[in-house]
Design a protein that fits this description.
The structure holds 2 protein chains of 2 kinds. Chain A is mainly beta. Chain A is built from 2 helices and 9 strands. In chain A, strands 1, 2, 3, 6, 7, 8 and 9 form a 7-stranded antiparallel β-sheet that branches. Chain A has a two-stranded antiparallel ribbon with strand order 4-5. Chain B has a domain of about 90 residues: Up-down Bundle (Four Helix Bundle (Hemerythrin (Met), subunit A)). The longest helix of chain B is centred in the middle third of the chain and has 29 residues. The chains are: A mainly beta, B mainly alpha. Chains A and B meet through strand 3 of A and loops of B.
Chain lengths: ~130, ~150
């Protein structure tokens, strides 16, 4: 999730906004494959379409499409494989969301609000079909 | 302990979340799936040859575990090794993996050794696809046992 979040950041998570997150919000969720707590950005929510494998996926009711900020090319340039996000494990049920990360309260030099809605991502969700 | 350190300890988060990327080792070989599928085949033979209820139950449990591992190894190959450009060399790639994974599911649910034989044949086709795309040279270290 660089550069929005870096390892070691201390984040405040609002659990009251876990339902119906807005695209662009950064959310903590239970990763479907592992049940571990993970953090990604909401790219699309119920009813929206996301490009996938040459076509589109329509996000179902009570689901969200979560993605890393880094592209596959960015991750590979940094020596990693593809980001582990909805492109790997598919849409995430809203019931798996824990809350919205909204504020970084540490370390001292990085205190501040997390970037919120980031607008339309390149190749991003195309709105309701 | 200083006040600053005490305060930091008090405020430090107690929960860690991950934002990780995959870190592929770059080593891929259909042999992993093949060995697990052979295990299914042989376990089903032993199942059929035994009249011991406990043995047969254990054989089914082990066979289902191995069939799951086949699916795992096939998925890793499909998702991580094969790339869109490989479709030129193997146009039926997606259908082949779909068929192989479906067959692994059949083996998981079946006691018919013929289903395990079909799975082995499909994995051999995956192996041919891996070889046709330069897999042995690109994804195994030199000195791989032949």
């Amino acid at each position: 999730m660089l550069p929005a979040i870096t390892p070691g950041d201390w984040l405040l998570v609002d659990p009251t906004t876990r339902c119906w997150p807005r695209p662009g919000a950064i959310v903590v969720f239970r990763e479907p494959e592992t049940d571990d707590l993970a953090i990604k950005r909401v790219r699309a929510r119920a009813g929206e379409r996301v490009p996938f494998n040459g076509g589109f996926i329509v996000i179902g009711a009570d689901e969200a499409w979560l993605e890393a900020d880094a592209t596959v090319a960015d991750a590979q340039a940094a020596g990693y494989g593809p980001p582990i996000d909805s492109n790997r494990f598919g849409p995430v049920p809203v019931s798996q969301l824990v809350g919205r990360a909204w504020f970084r309260y540490g370390p001292p030099g990085r205190i501040g609000r997390l970037p919120g809605r980031i607008g339309r991502l390149p190749g991003g969700a195309s709105g309701r079909p | 302990m200083s006040l600053r350190r005490t305060l930091a300890t008090f405020l430090a988060p107690t929960t860690t979340v991950r934002a990780h990327c995959d870190l592929p080792c770059g080593i891929y070989d259909p042999e992993q799936a093949r060995i697990e599928a052979e295990s299914c085949y042989r376990t089903l033979e032993k199942y059929a040859a035994s009249e011991d209820a406990t043995f047969r139950t254990r054989a089914l449990v082990i066979k289902e575990e191995r069939a799951d591992l086949v699916k795992h190894h096939l998925d890793v190959l499909w998702h991580d090794y094969f790339k869109p450009e490989h479709l030129e060399a193997v146009p039926n790639l997606h259908d082949l993996f779909w068929q192989a994974n479906k067959q692994a599911s059949k083996v998981k649910a079946s006691t018919d050794v013929a289903e395990a034989r079909k799975l082995l044949d499909l994995i051999d086709q995956v192996d041919a696809a891996w070889k046709a795309t330069g897999g042995p040279g690109k994804t195994r270290l030199a000195g791989r046992p032949s």
